[in-house]
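User: Hello, beginner here. Can you help me understand these amino acid letters and fold codes? It all follows right here:
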Amino acid sequence: MTNPCDLASLNSVPVKTALNIDREKVRRAAEVLGTKGTTETIDAALSEIIARDARLKFIERMSSLTDEQRDAILHSWD
């Protein structure tokens, strides 16, 4: 199973496309993400969405564990 946080596992190839985008949203997102340019900002925003989804799925999986299972995971690095 591939790691959902591993963006390289998506095997994506950039493609040029035309989009209608709210420039103010791109500007604000660039400030938050610390990016420059529309392409870099959109790419970073998409990566953040993918990572957010992976975190939510992880939280879902962790919440289904028993207390004993969670403790075993948390203390496996001791």
Q: What stands out?
A: The two ends are 27 Å apart (CA to CA). The first helix runs from residue 23 to 33. The chain has a mean pLDDT of 88. The chain has three helices and no strands.
